[in-house]
Amino acid sequence: MSSAYERIIELRGVSFSYSEAAFIEDLSMGAGEAAFIGLLGANGSGKSTMLKLLAGILRPQKGEANLWGKPVGSYKNKDRAKLLSYLPQVLDMNVPFRVKELARMGLYPYDTKPPLAVDDALGMVGLLDKKDSLLTNLSGGERRRAFIAMTLLQGAGILLLDEPLANLDIRYQMEIIRLLKELNRLKGITIIMALHDINLAMQFEELILVKEGRLLRIGPPDEVLTEDLLKEAFGIEIKIERHEDYRFISYGL
Amino acid sequence: MKVRVLLLVSIALLIFFVSLFLGPVPINPFSLSGTEREIVLFIRLPRVIVAALMGTALGAAGAVLQGMLRNPLADPYILGLSSGATLTASAGIISGMTFMGAFTIPVLAFAGAMATGALVGLMGWRRGGLLPERLLLAGIGLGFLFSAVVMLLMSVSTNEGLRRAVMWMFGDLGMADWGLIPSGAVFIALGLVIAMLRAKALNSLILGDDLSHSLGFSPRKETVLLFTATGLLTASSVSLGGMVGFVGLIMPHIMRFFVGPDSRVLIPASAIGGGMLLVVADLIGRTVFQPTELPSGIITALLGAPYFLYLLRRRDVLGI
After folding, report:
1. Structural contact between residues B296 and B51, judged by C-beta atoms closer than 8 angstroms
2. Closest partner residue to A78 among B203, B211, B216, by Cβ?
């Protein structure tokens, strides 16, 4: 990763394993202010684990996970929550709350009056007209956006998302990406988002390609999305063809 | 919302007073004779207070457990906590333990509830998470086991007074008297205060441990605190009047319709609702089937068990 800017969130020399066998070894990665990064890899490549290490949910067994230059574990829970929010891959579809009730939970770390009004946050994600709806009655994409509204109220400058596009129709996938890009551009929110879809990976400024808990390449899509690297990451033949501004990916069998 | 809570409190107070003056012999509150005064003060009032306190504890415990375990079927009785508390409490009664005075039985019941909760948690734990089905089955299984042991203790104990004391463990409020109330009330107050102070954390736990962490809570610490609160609540209820099932299951469901899912309102509402339910169940138990008196545990089971089966049928909708 370029050293032209300071990393506000990073893993430095991190090793981690769930069992005896090392899963992640001596991994270093991170993001600077207002970065928009896609963490790309096949299923089981360690994307979720890396995000959880960054979020402080998992503790590295070796090395450090830093947030604004300090170990993420050294922050008080509430202080960390004001700087960093994380959305897991599986959002329980059966939580009993209404949209506005969920969004309001983003204010839990704050004791004083919120910096952002609930209605404004819901407006930003386009759910203002559904604020009284039950989450169970929303589509998958709307539910994602309700959770994003919650993180907006949380006010954190860093947002880690684990596969927020999984199981969504392409239209909703594009909607979520557009929303995240807008938040990144307008509010300067640093976004790191795990994904496994190569086509969608082209939407990012910067990609981190991972395989089996290690880095394959960090860089802009042009450098990372090459046939050789993708073959290594995903284990299948991939052809990329360019046509004007579009790239077409075809998969060999 | 405020109107609804106020309405709830008014109904609860009304039920409380009505049940004081209804019974095998209805009493006119406006012209009390000396004997009637005695009956109200020393028989009915403690009994109604005990029922209200027990229901309060169970309703609140159910609301906490259902949120904490993200499981609409959770309840202190179904998870075996009540049986565990009953076992240690009856063992204490039978062996004549008094090491902490009036608090002996509640403390023993608390230890039983906590130990059972830990055991059920261990049995329901698989690959880094609690599996709802395993948890429920472990609770139901341990509940059976502990109830059987209590019955065994009861049948081998020869002293008639002790047998009566253990009978009371099965939810017969006929033995309620003023002496039980202070220690039970202290436990309930402690449990409620902890639960209410951690209500935001409970809301976040409903979203899942990772989101709870992201929102600035420590899911492990919060789970321990909230579980301690349910242990206190269950223990107080058991030591006041034994095992009464399903109040903690039904009340949070009813109250979610009435005041919504926010734990800050749901816990007190379920507590009030639980108190009402048990006072009414006890009233039915001592009036409808005269001269026989039915333990209120039977009434709540007759109401609650079918509802449990109904929930089980549509659990895909509720999503456990």
Report:
1. yes
2. B216
What one-character DSSP code corresponds to residue B135? Answer: H
Residue A161: helix, strand or coil by DSSP?
A: strand
Q: Which residues of B touch A131 (CB under 8 A)?
A: none
Q: CA B5, CA B25: separation in Å to the nearest integer?
A: 33
Residue A233 lies in a domain: no
- Give buried/exposed letters for B18-39 (b at 16+ CB in 10 A, else e): ebbbebeeebeeeeeeeebeeb
**A49 lies in some domain:** yes
The position carrying tokens 């006929």 is B174
Q: For residues A50 and A48, what is the distance between their CA atoms, to the nearest angstrom?
A: 5
pTM: 0.90
State which residue of chain A sits closest to B128, comparing Cα positions. Answer: A18
Please indicate whether, in this complex, the C-beta atoms of A101 and B260 are within 8 angstroms of each other. Answer: yes
Name the domain count of chain A. 1
Residue A229 lies in a domain: no
Is B254 an 8 Å CB contact of chain A?
no
H-type alpha helices, chain A: 47-55, 77-83, 99-104, 118-124, 140-154, 170-187, 198-201, 221-224, 227-234
| Tokens found for residue B118 | 């830990």
Q: Give the 3-state secondary structure of residue A216.
A: strand
CATH code of the domain in which A135 resides: 3.40.50.300
Q: Output the DSSP codes for B154-191.
A: HHH---HHHHHHHHHTTT-GGG--GGGHHHHHHHHHHH
Q: Which one-letter amino acid corresponds to residue A52?
A: K
- Chain B nearest-CA distance from A78, in A, is 4
Please report the domains of chain B, with CATH numbers, ordered by start residue: 52-313 (1.10.3470.10)
ipTM of the complex: 0.91
Mean pLDDT by 10 residues, chain B (320 residues): 90 93 83 86 90 96 94 90 92 83 88 94 81 86 92 77 66 75 93 97 94 94 94 92 90 92 96 96 87 84 87 57
A25 within domain boundaries:
yes
Domain limits at A184? 7-219
For A27, residues 6+ apart whose C-beta sits below 8 A from its C-beta are: A11, A13, A14, A15, A50, A63, A213, A214, A215
Nearest CB to B210: which of A78, A80, A86? Answer: A86
